[in-house]
Amino acid sequence: MTGRKIPGDWHSGSIPENVLIGDGAYVQTSYSFHLCRSKMAAAVVLGESSSVYIGCMFDMGPHAVFNVGAFTLLNGLWLICDQVVTIGTHCLLSWNVVIMDNFRAAEDVPSRRRMLEAFAATRDQQLIAPIKPRPVVIGNNVWIGFDCCILPGVHIGDGSIIGARSVVNEDIPAHCIAAGNPARVIRALRETEDSGDR
Amino acid sequence: MRTEAEGWMEAWDGGTLPAGVQVGEDTRIIGTAAFRRFRGQAPDALVIGDHATMDGVQFSVGPEGRIKIGKFCCFTSAVLMCELSICIGSYVLIGWNTVIADSDFHPISPAERIVDAVACSPAAGAPARPKVQRVEVVIGDDVWIGPNATIFKGVHIGNGAWIGPGSVVTRDVPAGTTVAGNPARVVEAL
What is the domain extent for residue B57? Predict the structure, then answer.
């Protein structure tokens, strides 16, 4: 893969050709794609004016697709994606947020051992787990605080806020604040909530 | 056991391993931060078995610390903070940004913490610090630890346990169970 270089990039790599970058979108370093093994034609789609800052790491399997909406800001997202993860428009994701569409670990011990032995033998930098991914969908205008984990199969509705260090293992409805480990809805948000900023 | 980085896919800095580090056959340590906070003095301050992958792991080992890791382990961007002993079995998988600590690092007592803050200050000239609690952490074989988890001092995790992403583990985890949450509790499955 010939790829594309980013001017001033600290990493010597380049952005893979199957990363589609929308008008005005920003990628800080090609290192974020160091573990992107997707063979899909549109593996990563970065919407108009979206941004991928340093600290993001997209660990993607051969069939993985990652969609990022317009004006969405990823400030250090750790992604494990083997099927599909979709993030809407105008989302704000803080540092060390983990989103995974599968756990990359077989449920039984003998399979986990085989997986680790295969990993050591191939050094492919990627664990191959015999499990079915469950797609993750983040709506539009969602704000996710730092150190959160969004687990496989989760859907988060439009306009919601996930408090820092939350672990989201169930769907979160639109327009609410959820927090905790496991995350629970704390209160609803009105579309035109008064932030109290004066 | 080897003590040199020669022939590795990607050494932490391309140099030799610090004294007290013993690494098994086909085991790889990747990343520049591996030994930035390594101050271990024991001859076995860090012992890693065969076929392990330590990618972006930080071995923050104090003067008396000892870390032992079995074979076929795969840790990515984990932080191991060891002042006494962290003992990890074989076939253990640890995800991104997980922290394991066997110490509180500072005293619980408010008065002693003032002494510690002064001792840690740049003006102090590195005097002796108050004693802090240290309790061994033991992690069995075949344990899976998700990303962003925290394992605190004194915790024993039984063989085959499954620690959910973001868990804060303050108590022992029975073998074969799945735990999640803060504080981590046994759950059916994730």
Answer: 21-101+134-187
Query: How many angstroms separate the CA of residue A178 from the nearest CA in chain B?
Result: 15
For residue A105, list chain B residues with Cβ-Cβ distance below 8 A.
93, 144, 162
Query: What is residue B62's three-state secondary structure?
Result: coil
Catalytic member of B37, B106, B129, B185: B106
What pLDDT digit, counting tens, does each position of A167-176 carry? 999 999 999 9
> Would the CB atoms of A181 and B26 count as touching at under 8 Å?
no
Residue spans of the domains in chain A: they are 19-106+133-188
Structurally, how many domains does chain B consist of?
1
CATH fold label, A19-106+133-188: UDP N-Acetylglucosamine Acyltransferase; domain 1 (2.160.10)
Could you give the maximum distance between any two Cα atoms of chain A, in Å? Answer: 60
User: How much is the pTM?
Assistant: 0.88
Cα gap A125→A123, rounded to integer Å: 5
